[in-house]
Task: structure prediction
Amino acid sequence: MIELTLAEVADVTGGTLTGADPAVRVTGGVEFDSRKVGPGGLFVAFAGERADGHDFAAGALAAGAAAVLGTRLLPGVPMVRVADPHAALAALARAVVDRLGSGLTVIGVTGSSGKTTTKDLLAGLTARLGPTVAPAGSLNNELGHPYTVLRAGPATRFLVLELGARGSGHIRHLCRVAPPRIGVVLNVGVAHLGGFGSVAAIAAAKAELVAALPAGGLAVLNADDPRVAAMAAQTRARVVTVGESPGAGLRATGVTLDRRGRPAYTLVAPEGSAPVRLGLTGAHQVGNTLAVAAVGRELGLTPAALATALAELRPVSPRRMDVFDRPDGVTVIDDSYNANPASAEAALRALVALGTGRRTVAVLGYLAELGEYERAGHERVGGLAAALGVDRLVVVGEPASPIHRGAGRQRQWKGESVLVADQAAAVAVLRRELRPGDVVLVKGSRYRTWDVADWLRESAAVVRA
Ligand SMILES: Nc1ncnc2c1ncn2[C@@H]1O[C@H](COP(=O)(O)OP(=O)(O)O)[C@@H](O)[C@H]1O
Ligand SMILES: [Mg+2]
Result:
């Protein structure tokens, strides 16, 4: 963070100082886990359901905290007392962004799938150009977002933020906390459909990002997703569309996948073209990296420089298209972090690309939060796996059973699906059936297939050769 006095913290957050010297400076980080607080830091005490941060104030002070920001008066503790710590955190983050001014470029990424992946790739690119702050993993909500923003300091040139939404107004709020100059919208799918009620509502929520961009800013929109391309009408910013569509401002042509499922394409920009070869797995990385290229171009990179930068990008956050070879000759695609129908489709396509000439196995778990699309969404994924010719399907858990049924309906399919009760049973199937040369995809919402992926990672020695 940039250094602020406690008086300034109180001023910015509308809080009152108790037991605190207004001239004391916050020189360390802002934390809400007392164990992470360091000398000169600010400890934010939230009263959560399970624990009350105020109870850990003493530990934070012992670790050197300059003060505690919280709601409840703690005698003898230097405090900034506020009514709402969430609002205070947001206000503090906004103050930091404002003070850093035009030296800081804020880039926001949203979409139904690929936010974390693309945020990581973007941060990999901007880090080549200047000091970059980006969240670890998926810190994209009203807590993780301002927390990340508060890590920016005077040296920071780029702030790359993932903007998540579980409802209308969420992204608008995050854009007030840290107003982006560049906004990327990847896609609109059915992720969290259960919470939103309709795809139109999801699209409207994502469009809050482009609506928040200033006239001098840039909106990067997916030309291949009509709902995203339509957002061009909702921004004052300049628009660049990216995709494989002929009309896209920045295009990929001649897309191919190599035997490891890694895309290559020609990057076509108005000022020239360059061949791109990615070190990332799956055709969906074409769109993600085109978005990254559009941002890099805005920051002054030529097509050739973009091609070089894109080639060096690698996956960062775990359980997302993480491809590894086991000593026993089995190749694993661990894409188990999370799943929705679109990302399941991307993963299945990567599986068959990687599995050319090899036996392909897909371990698929429940896709959460699909609302009324739940049954159809699962059936579609199963049907697609069969249509793509996946050899073996292991469907994990009764709630995911429509995947099993959807696959079974594909009459011409030569593969086989099995529905198992839980992850342990899925592991038992793999233990029995895996052979050297097999390619296994693991995919499901959140924890539903994590044990299977971890077993594949750790158990190479126990699988029969
Ligand atoms: N453009 C994309 N389209 C579809 N699926 C994608 C895309 N980019 C990434 N994915 C897949 O979606 C899943 C979630 O990726 P992640 O980057 O964590 O997205 P998010 O942060 O939006 O949840 C992963 O399985 C990932 O491989
Ligand atoms: Mg994420």
